UniProtKB/TrEMBL annotation:
Gene Ontology CC annotations of this record: cytoplasm; protein-DNA complex
Keyword terms of this UniProt record: DNA damage, DNA repair
Reaction(s) catalysed (UniProt annotation): Hydrolysis of alkylated DNA, releasing 3-methyladenine, 3-methylguanine, 7-methylguanine and 7-methyladenine
Domain DNA-3-methyladenine glycosylase AlkA N-terminal: 12-132
Pfam families: AlkA_N (PF06029), HhH-GPD (PF00730)
MF terms (GO), sorted A to Z: alkylated DNA binding; DNA-3-methyladenine glycosylase activity; DNA-7-methylguanine glycosylase activity
Name this polypeptide is given: DNA-3-methyladenine glycosylase II
GO biological process: base-excision repair, AP site formation; DNA alkylation repair
Family annotation (InterPro entries): AlkA_N (IPR010316), AlkA_N_sf (IPR037046), Alkylbase_DNA_Glycosylase/TA (IPR051912), DNA_glycosylase (IPR011257), HhH-GPD_domain (IPR003265), HhH_base_excis_C (IPR023170)
Length: 302
């Protein structure tokens, strides 16, 4: 019997968002990165339902998150124990950035000509966070220098090969120790990636299994150099994880090609210099620019 089947039945909750909540860009971003077998994102014109197995004491809980209201989200939890729900709900709030200080962010960024129209279009824009720092790190490495479609394919193979089956036809993401126990050559064959990429993931798994913590409460001044010391992990990956896994709202990814194009600059140094005045909200500026480039919603003709 699965953990969810052995636990308590559906419990429904509503999580209010602080300030305005433009859900469309958030859903488009999450849907673009959704890994088959790990999660599903069902999108409709009026919203979306995100389903995945959520980490919880005693085993994963099947979570269904409804997004489409302008003031928050609904959450259905199936399995596990109700006394553990508060932890799951807090993690969902963090993942969807529901507690963002939208007034402070929008007020600050609206003062810059490049960002003002973006803030006007999506006041209260949120940054998708991380369900699990190790999961996010592995998926980020798999997505290096390939298309989103290729990254999802690689990730789906990894989850199918090494994840644990659960309710809803979904699987959990393998734990660091589980991946660390897989030989790089076997990982390469199962996921069908290069030997170098398999070596990077194996090294990351060994580091995480050995105590490298990649969550919001980790010491990222120590985590960053540890990440950069691993094979195949460079500044872009470390910067990205500071935004997503660490939740640093002033983190920035100056080397990102889409960002540099959006800013009309050629180098990471120029992007960093231009963004200096956006502190301490550079991550929100980054997601506004990414939204404009990739996740904007084009209104249907009347």
């Amino acid at each position: 019997m699965s953990p969810a089947e052995a636990g308590e039945p559906d419990r429904m909750y509503v999580l209010a968002a602080a300030g305005p909540f433009p859900w469309q860009p958030l859903v488009r971003s999450l849907a673009a990165h959704a890994v088959p077998g790990l999660e599903t994102v069902e999108v409709t014109p009026s919203g979306a339902v995100l389903t995945r197995l959520w980490p919880a004491p005693g085993g994963p809980v099947l979570a269904q998150i409804g997004i489409g209201a302008p003031d928050g989200v609904s959450v259905s939890l199936n399995g596990g124990r109700q006394e553990n729900d508060a932890g799951c709900l807090g993690a969902v709030r963090s993942w969807l950035d529901l507690d963002a200080d939208t007034h402070a962010v929008d007020t600050a960024l609206a003062g810059f000509p490049r960002l003002a129209p973006l803030v006007e279009r999506y006041p209260g824009l949120r940054i998708p966070g991380s369900v699990d720092g190790f999961e996010t790190a592995v998926l980020t490495v798999l997505g290096q220098q390939v298309s989103l479609a290729a990254a999802r394919t690689f990730a789906a193979r990894l989850v199918a090969a090494y994840g644990t089956a659960g309710p809803g036809g979904l699987r959990t993401f393998p734990a660091p120790g589980e991946l660390a126990a897989v030989a790089p050559a076997d990982l390469q064959a199962a996921v069908r990636i290069t030997g170098a990429r398999a070596g990077s993931i194996h090294a990351l798994a060994e580091a995480a299994a050995g105590g490298l913590e990649l969550g919001r409460h980790s010491d990222w001044q120590a985590v960053r150099p540890a990440l950069l010391a691993l094979p195949g992990i460079g500044p872009w990956t470390a910067d990205y994880l500071e935004v997503r896994a660490a939740g640093d709202r002033d983190a920035f990814i100056p080397g990102d090609l889409v960002l540099r194009r959006a800013l009309g600059v050629a180098t990471a140094k120029e992007a960093s210099r231009l963004a200096e005045d956006w502190r301490p909200w550079r991550a929100y500026a980054l997601f506004h620019l990414w939204t404009e480039a990739a996740y904007d919603i084009v209104p249907a003709p009347a």
